[in-house]
Amino acid sequence: MAESLAPQLAEFFGGLFSDGFAYKNELIIFIISMLPILELRGGLIAAALLKVELIPAMVICFIGNILPIPIILLFVKRVFAFMKKHNIFVSLVEKLENRGKVKGEKIQKSKWEEWALMIFVAIPLPGTGGWTGALIASLLNMDNKKAFKVITIGVAIAGILVAVFSYGLLNPLIEYFK
Length: 178
What we know:
By secondary structure, this protein is an all-alpha fold. The chain has helices at 2-16, 24-34, 39-49, 54-66, 69-85, 90-108, 113-122, 130-139, 144-176.
């Protein structure tokens, strides 16, 4: 899913900025990396497609991905409670809570809860990134500092894995089909 959305989002955001903007591609991948579902995974794929150099792309996407995590950890339960109380997207909130709880139960059953969360976030698939990890940590009432630490490590591992795919495997395919 992230693989198919990333090029479309890169093209969309690219149209928003003038050609004279020096860091257009970097801003595009930063924004993509902040989005739920796509996160760093989509940002790095877009970075490879936009020809952003690997190291700057990894740093930009990493920062973009972890920036929302403390906010999610601190406020997601309050926001969900407010939304349910005022009948705002109640079915969506309940769906997100149930999804987080189901994935969280698998993590909570582990005696190494923090390791399990880190591995979960590190898996480079849609729905297993920092946003979902923060939701799970919040629903499991994990300590926010510990949760942020393990989610950050998980995002870094995912970044390395996706960079290998995006810059190691995807780039030759892009060049071949030009």
